[in-house]
Design brief:
The structure is a single chain. By secondary structure, the protein is of the alpha/beta class. The chain has nine helices and seven strands. It is about 45% helix and about 15% strand. The chain is globular, with a radius of gyration of 17 Å.
């Protein structure tokens, strides 16, 4: 087994399914202790079972990431259990899609407050223990649509694009303390959420991908583990597209 994350304590939000679950399980397979955050701890049962099958340690946490208290409480729980926080993957997010003229202020605010505001809360809460430890790695899970735009997702694209500036500014501020901050921007990834799309829509999306296939959650998990581990320690302030060439179209 690759032990590149052996003994690292990592918090992954949105760890109940899809990309977040894949990241949590992959990090555990590399030796990390993993805390997973979801809206309800019962949603984390499958993630917990997969990690325990690997012989890893898992801590299930719940809360609404749009609230600052959720971030502070989650990170406090990690430190109480394992002593330190070495890595954070801010993956959780929501969608409230609609065309711009039909989008309500409530739906716009909900996506901004959760996807961008939640990442800010987590960043701020994680920074304090990482500063004490003189090191750490923070990853925001963004989206290729932050670069390309997408009709019906003005709120989502705006929130994900905001992560670019947040990560770059934080990387400059925190670099002298050996804390890295990066964004991974997935393209069309095959998850239970995208499986619900009509076949015609999935085929249309795939036709624009240079590799002619959707990505998998494991594609994102591999890069996440790289950035969290020693091999990624000299990479910071970057936005990394993992889209199979979708953004080239």
């Amino acid at each position: 087994m690759d032990n590149s994350l052996q003994g690292k304590n990592i918090l992954v939000t949105g760890a109940s399914r899809g990309i977040g679950q894949a990241i949590a399980v992959h990090c555990a397979s590399l030796g990390a202790n993993v805390a997973g955050l979801a809206t309800r701890t019962s949603n984390l049962d499958a993630t917990a079972a997969a990690i325990q099958e690997l012989g890893g340690e898992f801590l299930g946490l719940e809360g609404d990431i749009s609230l600052a208290a959720t971030a502070t409480d989650a990170i406090a729980a990690v430190i109480e259990k394992w002593g330190t926080l070495d890595g954070l993957v801010a993956n959780a997010g929501i969608t409230r899609d609609n065309l711009l003229l039909r989008m309500t202020q409530e739906d716009f605010d909900a996506v901004i407050n959760t996807n961008l505001g939640g990442s800010f809360h987590l960043l701020k809460a994680a920074t304090k223990p990482m500063l004490r430890n003189k090191g750490g790695s923070i990853i925001f899970i963004g989206s290729v649509v932050a670069t390309t735009g997408n009709p019906g997702q003005a709120n989502y694209c705006a929130a994900k694009a905001g992560l670019h500036g947040l990560a770059r500014s934080a990387a400059i501020e925190l670099g002298s303390r050996n804390i890295t901050v990066n964004v991974i921007a997935p393209g069309f990834i095959a998850t239970d959420m995208t499986d619900k799309l009509p076949e015609a829509a999935k085929e249309a999306m795939t036709s624009h991908i240079a590799l002619k296939r959707p990505g998998t959650p494991e594609d994102i998990a591999g890069l996440s583990a790289f950035l969290l581990g020693p091999s990624g320690s000299y990479i910071t302030g970057q936005v990394m597209l993992v889209d199979g060439g979708l953004s080239l179209a």
